[in-house]
Design goal:
about 230 residues; alpha+beta
C-alpha cells in the first residue's frame, strides 16, 4: 500500500473513532476509544513525517548540500535477531569513512527507510515496509561498522520472528499450502471428496458413494490376494 493511501486510511479511521467517541456514553468504551485515537494519531504523525522526508529527497532539496548524485536501491542484506532486537545487516564499502550524519534511518511501527548520503558520489536507499511485527520506534537505531550498517529494530514483544516482513510470511504460507512434503496425499484427496460430497446434489452424492464403495471393495480384494 502506497504511503499516501496509508495516510488517507489512517485519517479516515481517526475520523470514525472521534465520531464514536462523541456518541459513546460508557467510560470503559471511551477509554478504549481514546487509546485507539492516540495510537492512530501517533502512526499518522510518523507517516506524515516520512512522506515529508521522502518528498524532500525526491525533489533534491537544495537545503541539504550532502544529497547529491543519483540514488542506488539496496536489495542485498542479511538479518538475525535476539530477544530484544531484529538486526538487519547492510554491506556498504567505505560507509564508516563518511560523516555519521550521512547515515539516516527513519522508523515507523511497521517499516524503516535507510538513506546513506554521498557515499562514493552516490546515495544508497533501502526501504522495508510491512515488518512482520510492530517495533518500538523510539528505541530503534542504527550502528555503523567497518563497511557495514546495522539497522536495529527494537521488538515490542520478546518473541521470535519467523521472517522479516509480512510479504515473506504470506509467500512461505502459500508455498507450504501448495506443496507440503510431510502431508499424506490421500488426506488431501479425502478432504476434497468430502467437500464435493457436502456441496453436491443428490446425483453427485450417489456417484461419490458408488465410487467409494467400489474402491473399498477393490482394496479388500487386493488385501485377500496378498494373504
Amino acid at each position: 500500500m502506497e504511503l499516501d493511501t496509508q495516510i488517507k486510511e489512517l485519517e479516515t479511521d481517526l475520523k470514525e473513532v472521534l465520531v464514536m467517541l462523541e456518541t459513546s456514553a460508557r467510560k470503559r468504551v471511551q477509554s478504549l476509544l481514546k487509546q485507539e485515537q492516540q495510537k492512530i494519531e501517533k502512526e499518522l504523525t510518523q507517516k506524515r513525517q516520512l512522506r515529508e522526508q521522502l518528498s524532500k529527497r525526491d525533489s533534491g532539496d537544495s537545503s541539504d548540500p550532502t544529497v547529491k548524485g543519483y540514488t542506488v536501491k539496496i536489495n542485498n542484506y542479511g538479518w538475525d535477531q535476539s530477544e530484544k532486537f531484529v538486526k538487519i545487516y547492510i554491506t556498504l564499502k567505505g560507509v564508516h569513512k563518511i560523516p555519521a550524519e550521512n547515515v539516516e534511518v527513519t522508523f515507523t511501527e511497521k517499516s524503516f527507510i535507510l538513506f546513506v548520503k554521498n557515499l562514493d558520489g552516490k546515495n544508497h536507499e533501502m526501504t522495508v515496509n510491512n515488518l512482520l511485527c510492530p517495533i518500538d520506534v523510539q528505541e530503534s537505531s542504527r550502528k555503523v561498522k567497518t563497511d557495514m550498517v546495522i539497522v536495529m529494530c527494537r521488538k515490542t514483544a520478546a518473541k521470535k520472528w519467523d521472517c522479516l516482513t509480512q510479504v515473506e510470511k504470506k509467500s512461505k504460507e502459500k508455498d507450504k499450502s501448495n506443496f507440503d512434503e510431510s502431508a499424506d496425499p490421500s488426506e488431501g484427496l479425502m478432504s476434497m471428496l468430502k467437500k464435493i460430497y457436502t456441496e453436491g446434489d443428490d446425483d453427485m452424492k450417489r456417484t461419490i458413494s458408488k465410487a467409494w464403495t467400489e474402491s473399498q471393495e477393490k482394496r479388500a480384494k487386493g488385501d485377500e490376494m496378498d494373504i
